[in-house]
Amino acid sequence: MTQKSWASRLPVVKSKAEMAYDNLRQAIAGGELRPGERINMDELARNLGVSKIPIREAIKRLESEGLVTSQMHSGVAVTQVDKTEMRGVFLAREAIEGLVAKLAAERASDGLLATLEEVQTKMRAELAAGATEQLPELNSDFHRALSEASGYRILAELTEQLLLTIRRFRIASPVDTQNWEAVVEEHDAIIEALRLGDPAGAAAAAQAHTISQAGHEVAEER
Length: 222
Fold this sequence. Notes:
Elements: H1 3-7, H2 16-30, E1 38-39, H3 41-48, H4 52-64, E2 68-71, E3 75-78, H5 83-106, H6 110-128, H7 135-149, H8 153-172, H9 177-195, H10 199-217
Antiparallel strand pairs: 1-3, 2-3
Helix pairs in contact: 2-4, 3-4, 5-7, 5-8, 5-9, 5-10, 6-7, 6-9, 7-8, 9-10
């Protein structure tokens, strides 16, 4: 029996610190913990049924990712995201999304196209129903699938981090329905380039998508 065969059967056991980290990260991503909100570590420890030690470990990890900020005398709070920072995030996305789409187009499969089309169908259904609550997660699903198709773990991780920052920003500055409709149309252009096996076209469509969204959300006032 090889190491790979027996290791694959081992149960995935998370430490208390990992569980605390996952809970906090999901709460931040979903807007249950809003930017600027103070985190009560005593209350969190009680709610999760753990001591404060794993909570501190989780906080340290979140702080290294820039998701929370510790300040003397004021405790720990969810990091604020302002427009200046978001402009940098969109510039990073422009470069990374273009590369991700190019690589995905070079290896696009029927499975990837089906996944992206399924996300698009769900997004259109939400818009038709006048609902927007699920759109941020569906949008993340679209870009997550693309980044995973790139074949590089680091690109998937960077995409995930940028998407999380954008979702946190949108909690305070929600995307309107008209903008979400534009998002879906821009996704269509990326899918079409993937279907044609056009890496340059996919990169251009992904970059145009990011530039368009930056124009909607973080354009400098004149």
